[in-house]
Amino acid sequence: MLIVTADHGQSFNDFHKNYWGHNSNFAAPQTHVPMIVHGPGVAPGVEDGMTSHLDVAPMLMRHALGCTNPLSDYAQGGDLLDEQLNHPWVIASSYLDYGIIESDRITVVNGTGQWKILDRQLTPLDNPGFSPAVFEALQQFRQFYEK
């Protein structure tokens, strides 16, 4: 199986908010990366749903290594070759903070726990409701933590 991808994209002041380079926000120019997968059982096509690099290991475990365990035994992602895969949200992180990316918003949480909610073009939202995805993401962080 052959996979060609990148770990991040690059911003070129796409939304006129002076973001350049990478690792400065969680908008599409920095998080939407190309991925090409080729190998036995991989049908040609284009996937437009929301996926994550966390979906690569489950795909490899199932399709390249023949693992039949439930994905939740070893991964937080889904199988990239599952036609039904389309996450309602994904987690991305930088050196300093993490973002919960949804179709209509990005919730950014910094290292001290302070948060802000932005639209997908990095404009702060006025009085947004707190998304249930944030609580789901926090639970996912605990998946492999033992008390």
UniProtKB/TrEMBL annotation:
InterPro entries: Alkaline_phosphatase_core_sf, Sulfatase_N. Coiled coil: none annotated. It holds the Pfam family Sulfatase. It comes from the Bacteria. SUPFAM superfamilies: Alkaline phosphatase-like. Residues 2-64 form the Sulfatase N-terminal domain. This is Inner membrane protein YejM.
